[in-house]
């Protein structure tokens, strides 16, 4: 079987030798397809990369298509950063993650995908002022912050999952502050956050204002056609990098629909197929449609 194809789809991007997997694998982990020929190490029962990661990387690399330097805040197992690195072959990356387990997984994924020469993984809390030097600036910054305050829900059964969902080490306020401090002139900040409740939307809007960021564009995410959006992508820039007349403007894009609704005219089988736009979007980031 030709490993350059998957169900009729030709995998784009650099080809990675599969012989590396045996040397890098550990018990209790899986090595999974990420994008193109890139793959990612994940715990079988821990946090695993998701649609949110894919969307943040797509949004950032779409609206900042030629950055020289990229920062991934709260990078977890490395999905967002490595998705972006697959698309941005000329960019240099710095990623910041506090969980030792996630850092170890990301470092082996980085090695597997042959990214070591342009991809630096830093172990530490993004709120630590010594982790990123004051003079370090980035053209593109990305982040998928935890969505919920501690005590606001069921926290989960694995430490890695809890830290990804709940604000153990900072909130969207901290992500926006750090991004604002380290955006290069004209830089772009890509982030995802819940909007199912009005209070959640107000949180991200307030965090942007406090950090002197302007939300220049946003796109709601509808997971199933006909349902209300649960999340939204936000693209931000420093307000002082924009003309004064632009600082209070946000281009609100139409919702991105992930899956089409069931329809009765499909011969009785549920039509949960992926929406056409999302299929095209996946192709642009090295995923099978």
Describe the structure.
By secondary structure, the chain is of the alpha/beta class. The chain has one domain: 3-Layer(aba) Sandwich (Rossmann fold). 27% of the residues lie in helices and 27% in strands. The chain contains eight helices and 13 strands. The protein has helices spanning 21-24, 51-63, 79-87, 100-112, 159-165, 172-182, 198-210, 276-284, and strands spanning 5-6, 9-10, 29-35, 38-43, 69-73, 92-97, 119-123, 138-143, 183-194, 213-224, 231-238, 251-252, 256-259. The strands form three sheets. Strands 5, 6, 7, 8, 9, 10, 11, 12 and 13 form a nine-stranded mixed β-sheet that branches. A hairpin with a 2-residue loop joins strand 1 (5-6) and strand 2 (9-10). Helix 2 (51-63) runs parallel beside helix 3. It starts with a strand and ends in a 5-residue tail after the last helix. The relative contact order is 0.13. The model has no long low-confidence stretch (mean pLDDT 89).
């Amino acid at each position: 079987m030709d490993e350059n194809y998957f169900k009729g789809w030709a995998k784009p991007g650099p080809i990675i030798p599969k012989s590396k997997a045996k040397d890098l694998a550990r018990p209790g982990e899986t090595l999974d397809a990420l994008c193109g020929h890139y793959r990612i190490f994940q715990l079988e029962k821990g946090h695993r990369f998701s649609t949110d990661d894919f969307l943040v990387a797509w949004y950032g690399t779409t609206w900042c298509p030629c950055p020289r330097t990229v920062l991934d805040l709260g990078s977890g197992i490395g999905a967002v950063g490595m998705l972006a690195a697959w698309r941005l072959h000329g960019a240099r990356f710095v990623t910041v993650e506090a969980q030792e387990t996630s850092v170890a997984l990301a470092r082996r994924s980085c090695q597997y995908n042959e990214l070591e020469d342009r991809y630096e993984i830093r172990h530490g809390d993004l709120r630590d002022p010594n982790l990123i030097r004051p003079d370090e600036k980035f053209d593109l910054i990305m982040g998928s912050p935890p969505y919920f305050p501690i005590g606001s829900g069921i926290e989960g059964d694995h430490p890695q999952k809890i830290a990804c969902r709940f604000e153990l080490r900072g909130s969207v306020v901290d992500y926006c502050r750090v991004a604002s401090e380290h955006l290069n002139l004209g830089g772009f900040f890509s982030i995802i956050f819940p909007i199912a409740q009005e209070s959640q939307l107000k949180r991200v809007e307030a965090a942007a204002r406090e950090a002197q960021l302007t939300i220049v564009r946003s796109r709601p995410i509808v997971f199933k056609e006909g349902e209300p959006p649960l999340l939204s992508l936000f693209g931000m820039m420093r307000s002082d990098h924009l003309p004064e007349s632009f600082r209070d403007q946000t281009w609100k894009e139409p919702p991105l629909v992930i899956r089409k609704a069931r329809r009765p005219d499909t011969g009785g089988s549920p039509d949960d197929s992926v929406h056409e736009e999302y299929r095209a979007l996946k192709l642009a980031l090295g995923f099978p449609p």
